Amino acid sequence: xxxRLVKATDADLxxxxxxxxxxxxxxxxxKHEADYYSAxxxxxxxxxxxxxxxxxxxxxxxxxxxxxxxxxxxxxNIIYGPLKGCHIGYGVAKSFEGTxxxxxxxxxxxxxxxxxxxxxRLMAAYMPFNSRSETLLKKLGFTQEGLARKYLQINGSWEDxxxxxxxxxxxx
Length: 172
Prior knowledge:
alpha+beta, Aminopeptidase, 7 strands, 33% helix, N-acetyltransferase domain-containing protein, N-acetyltransferase
């Protein structure tokens, strides 16, 4: 298995991963157009994402094994200056839940954020009933900071989210 930054040529792999896990991801994601995860639409979005990656404004990691994406982790909304922080998001194929894979992929992204990007603060949010995310973030060292009411629109409904953060240990 390899954990690496996404490439422009990964559209077909990502499309297969998201389409296979569409039902699994639906309860955690915003509503999307029917073709949002088609290879064609992913190619369009990947090209702009690769530009952002090359400019250290985002990073999108994938875990790939035998030509299949098993999990993903993204660093987005990267802000430099006095904040030096970003949001972290993640997902794992239904068949790999509970295997420890998500911890490995997220830890890889965290190491990248703190060492390569020299960020100070990573922020993650999860819905209060998402016990898997709560457990994952605690295991990774994230600290709960509060509850944001109606924080994100997920699958058509405004959902409360628990806000968490992880501070670069070099700055703690």
